[in-house]
Amino acid sequence: MNRLPTNRWLHGFAVLTALATFVLLGAGGLVTSKGVGMAVPDWPNTYGYNMFLFPVSQWIGGIFYEHSHRLIGAGVGLLTAVLAAWLWTRETTGRSRWLGIGGIALTLVLMSARLMPVYLALATGAVVVIVLTLRRFVKRPDELRWLGLTALAAVILQGVLGGLRVVWIQDELGIVHATLAQLFFVLVCVLALFTSRWWRETVNRSAAEPEDAKPVAQRPFSPEPARLTTHKLALAVTLLILGQLILGATMRHQHAGLAIPDFPLAYGRLWPAMDAESVARYNQQRIEVLAHNPITAFQIALQMAHRLVALAILVGVAAVAWRAKRFGRGDGDRVGAVLRRLAWGWLSLIVAQVALGAWTIWSNKAADVATAHVLVGALSLVAGALWCVIGLRCRGWAAEAAWCGALKFPHRQSGFAGERSAGMISGVAG
Amino acid sequence: MKTGIGFWATAIALAMTSAVRAGNITGTVKLTGTPPPEKVITPLIEDATCGKLVKGKPTTQFYVVGPNQELADVVVMLKGISGKSTGASAPPAELDQVGCIYTPSILAIQTGQKLIVKNSDPVLHNVSTVPTKNPPDNKAQLPGGPDLTFTFAKPENFLKFKCDVHPWMFAWVTVVDHPWFAVTDKNGKFTIKDVPPGKYTITALHRKAAPEGVDKEIEVKDGDVTVDFTLEVK
C-alpha cells in the first residue's frame, strides 16, 4: 500500500480545484439559463481575438457570460493540470516522473496551439486516457496519479466538447457537455476526499489493515445486511440523480423555456394533455420574451419525468437518511458518524433542490434561480457519490476487480468481503 | 390558306392563355378569440447598451391585431408547389437590427434568394440561424460592419434568426420554393401576384395562431381572386 504521508497543501489545492469547478458549473449554468451559448460564434478564438486578449469593453450582453465561462474553464483546466502534475510528481521518481511531467506540459502546449485538428486529436486521446487511467486506478487505488490524469483528460475533453458545441452548432453536444461537467465535478471532489488526511488515516487505513489490529474507531461498519441495504440504496439513488441531471440537461438544451408553466399541477391537471391539439393550444398561449423554441409533447413528457424522478430521489434519499440515523452511534464508528451526518446533509440538499425546482417554474425560469437549481443538483450528485465512496469503501476496490466488493459478497464472513480482500491486497502492495 | 388559319388559331389561343395567366390573390386575415397579452421585453430595457436605444417599454409582437381583428405577420402562400423558385434572380430581402430588435420579425423569402441582414445598431450582434431543414449558421456582426448575406436551399416554415448576445432578439423567416406568397400588413391584408391559372391549396401561417397553417382550396382563373382567412386563438 502506498504510505505516502498526507500533504495538506495538495489537499488544499484539490479543494481549490473543486471550488473553481463549482464556480465554472455556475458560469456554464448561467450561459444556458440566459440562452447565450452561441453569443461568441467562434472558438477557440473570441470574435477573432485570442480569448485571453479579448477586450473587456466588448464583454457585452450574452458575450459576458459565454466569454467568462470560457475563461473560468481555462482556469479550471490549468488547475487540473497542476493537480495532475502534482500527484504524478509525488508518486513517481526518476525517468517516470519526468516522462509524466513532460507529457502534461506537452498537452498544455498543444492546447495553446488553438488549432481545430489538434483539439480533435486531443479530445480523442483524452477518451483513451480516461479509460486507461481509470482501469489503472481501479487496480491500484492508492496511486492517485492515475485519477489525476483522468481528471486532466476529462477537463480537456470537456473544453473541446464545449468548443465543438459552438462551432458545430449542435445542441446534443451541449447535453453531453453538461453531463460531463457534473461527472468532472464529482471526480475532483473525490480527489479532494482521497487527498484528505481524514480519508488516508481513517477510512483508507481501516480498509487496509486486519481488523484485529485496528483501533475500534477505525474498524469497518457492522456488516449486517440492513446496513448493506442502505449502501446499495444510496448507490441506486446516486445513479438516479445522475440520470436526473441528464434529464435536466436535456430539458435545458431544448431551448424551449418552460414546457410546463405551473407547479405542482401541470397545465392545471395532475397529468397534462399531450395530444397535438393541446400542445398547439399551449403554444398559442405562450408569450416568450427570449428566443425560445415552441414546446413539444416530448418536452412536456420530459418535464413530467423530471418531476417524477425528483419525487423518487426525495423518497430514496430520505430513506437513506432514515436508515443511517443509527450509524456511528456506538462503538466509536467515526466513519459511520460521518455518513450519518452526510446523509442528513444530502437530504437537506435534495429538499432545497425540490424547492428550487418549484421556484424555477414559479419564476418562469429566471436565470439565477434555474442556475441555482443546476448547482444544487451538482452538489446533490457529489453528496451521493461521496456517501457511496465512503460508505462502500470504494477505496477498497482493490478487491481485485470487485468494485465495492461488499455489493458482491454481502454475507461472507464477519465483515465486508471486499474490505478483507482489499486489505490483503493493499497489504501486499504496501 | 389552312396554314394561315392554323397560325392565327394558335396565336389567339396563346394570347387567351397569357391573358388568364396573371391572376392575383388578395384577401384579409382576421383573428378570433382573445390572444394572451404581450410582454414587456424587460431584458432589453435593462441592458446597459441596448436599453439606451429604445424608448418607452417595447413589448413582444406575437399577435399584431388591428381594431377589427385584422392580423398582421401572417405568411400566406400556395401550398404543395416545389421547384418553381425564382429566388436566384429575385431582389434580395432585408432584415435589419434596429434598437436591438429585428425588423421585420416575420419575413418570407424564396429558396436561393439572398437575405441581407443589416446592423443599424451601434452595438455588436451575432446572427444565428436555427433551421430544421437547412444547415445552421452563426455569424458575428460588428457595429458598422458589412451586411451579412444568407441563402437557404430548402423550404421551411419559421426558420428562426436570433442574436445570442441579446437573447430577446429573434425573427422568423419562412423559406418558400416558389414566388407565390405574401405577408399580411398591419391591416391584415395580403396580395399574391402573378399566379398562373389553376386550382391551388392556399395556406395561412401564423407563428402562434396557426404554426401549421390553415388551408383553403382556390381556383385562379381570369383576374383577381379573393380569399379571406380567420385564424383562431383557443
Can you put this structure into words, describing what you see?
The complex is a heterodimer of chains A (about 425) and B (about 230). Chain A has 13 helices and no strands. Chain A is mostly helical and about 425 residues long. In chain A, about 45% of the residues are buried. The radius of gyration of chain A is 23 Å and the shape is flat. Chain A starts with 7 loop residues before the first helix and ends with a helix. Chain A has helices spanning about 10-35, 60-90, 95-110, 115-140, 145-165, 170-195, 195-210, 225-250, 275-285, 295-325, 335-360, 365-390, 415-430. Residues about 215-225 and about 395-430 of chain A have low confidence and may be disordered. In chain A, helix 1 packs antiparallel against helix 2. Chain A has 2 domains: about 10-195, no CATH class; about 220-390, no CATH class. Chain B has a single domain (about 25-230), classed as Cupredoxins -  blue copper proteins (Immunoglobulin-like), CATH 2.60.40.420. Chain B is built from 2 helices and 17 strands. Chain B has helices at about 1-20, 40-45, and strands at about 25-30, 75-80, 95-100, 100-105, 105-110, 115-120, 125-130, 135-140, 150, 155-160, 170-175, 180-185, 190-195, 200-205, 210-220, 225, 230. Chain B has about 230 residues and is mainly β. A 5-stranded mixed β-sheet of chain B has the order 5-11-10-7-8, with no helix packed on it. In chain B, strands 1, 13, 16 and 17 form a 4-stranded mixed β-sheet that branches. In chain B, about 10% of the residues lie in helices and about 40% in strands. Chain B is globular. Chains A and B meet through helix 2 and helix 9 of A and strand 7 and strand 8 of B.
